Amino acid sequence: MSIVEFKPAPGSVKKRIRRARGNASGHGGESGRGHKGQKSRTGYSRRAGFEGGQMPLYRRLPKKRGFTVASKVAFAPVNLQDVSKLATAKNLVELGILDFVQGGLCRPGVAVKILGDGDFNSNITLYANAFSKVAVQKIEAAGGKVVIL
Questions:
Q1: Alpha carbon 67 to chain centroid, angstroms
Q2: Residues contacting residue 7 through CB under 8 Å, at least 6 positions apart
Q3: What does the pLDDT look like over 49-64, one tens digit per residue?
């Protein structure tokens, strides 16, 4: 094989388009810009969000009102009936509902609040970020303990 036999892969090299070089080139006349108008002129650039004079979307939508509190904690609710069905905190961990973090039970990356919906009859110690008053009463009435993380 000699150096004269080397060629680029088929379709990898394209011929450059020569605009405004007469009608025979296929890009004469308006040079692919269509007929007159702002978009056919040199230096044209449309600003972001421009919709041809129509009121743009960012001005049609209402402004965001109010504010968010960065320190607000979003709790993941867990009812007592869910805890009592699973009987022990170990089962909650195995099912991936809760996780042991720093000696207590919590949901990975989320604060857990135990709510008092349902019956509770086991005497285990429950660890969570928050408890409702009804949940605390039911747990202590059953002989269990409540530890707030």
A1: 20
A2: none
A3: 889 889 999 999 998 8
